[in-house]
Amino acid sequence: MDEGLGNTKEMTSRYSENDVMDDVSVTNGAPSLEEQLCMKDEEIAQLKDRLLRLTAEFDNFRKRTVREKEEFRKFASEELLLELIEVYDNFERALESAKNTDDVGSVVKGVEMVFKQFVSILEKEGLQKMECIGAEFDPHEHEAMLHVEHPDHDDNTIIDVCKSGFYLHSRVLRPAAVTVSKLPEGSVADKDKDRS
């Protein structure tokens, strides 16, 4: 029995640790630790390369977007300007005509036609003039230039426009500069306030 045990010890001592590892890798079909490490290094190198490429692509995309945005901003008004050049040409012709004629009525009529053309271009672009006379004063749309006592109008009513206001689509582009009525002191409304 002792001989059998001795033989077993001899058999196990014959194999070194490397032999055992080689046997395991060969028998399992799995790559060795060194091979796994090399594979991971290759994978890391590929991921780094991919990251660098993606970073470069994103940077190029960002630069191209900025360039396109700048170009769009530069030429966004091109169509509008082409239409306004037509108005410019018509004004030029009207001025030339005014110099060579004594018929003031035809000059006025020509200028009115050019003005209508100009207004229609602005309206097509979404510009709309505010209608203020008789409306109640609204600080979001109007700028009060004067307050005038006026017994014929309700308090806080717009009675005159000093400078027209405009909407661009539905947003106030420029508030109207207006004159606003206020009731004279001692009027019926003031007496009602005193009673309250």
Write the topology of this structure.
Elements lengths: L1 H13 L2 H12 L4 H43 L2 H22 L4 H21 L2 E3 L12 E8 L8 E6 L2 E3 L2 E4 L1 E7 L5 H8 L1
Parallel strand pairs: 2-6
Antiparallel strand pairs: 1-4, 3-6, 4-5
Helix pairs in contact: 4-5
Shape: elongated
Helical content stands at: 55-70%
Helical run tally: 6
Strand order of the largest sheet: 1-4-5
Q: How would you classify the helix and strand content by structural class? A: alpha+beta
Q: State the end-to-end CA separation.
A: 124 Å
Q: pLDDT average, as an integer?
A: 83
Taking pLDDT < 50 over at least 5 consecutive residues as the criterion, the unreliable ranges are 1-5, 23-27
Gyration radius (Cα, Å) is 44 Å
In total, the number of strands is 6
Strand content: 15-25%
Q: What's the main sheet like?
A: 3 strands, antiparallel
Encode the helix/strand succession as letters. Answer: HHHHHEEEEEEH
Fold and architecture overview:
This protein has helices at 2-14, 17-28, 33-75, 78-99, 104-124, 188-195, and strands at 127-129, 142-149, 158-163, 166-168, 171-174, 176-182. It is α+β, with helices and mostly antiparallel strands and 196 residues long. Strands 1-4-5 form a three-stranded antiparallel beta sheet. Strands 2-6-3 form a three-stranded mixed beta sheet, with no helix packed on it. A hairpin with a 2-residue loop joins strand 4 (166-168) and strand 5 (171-174).
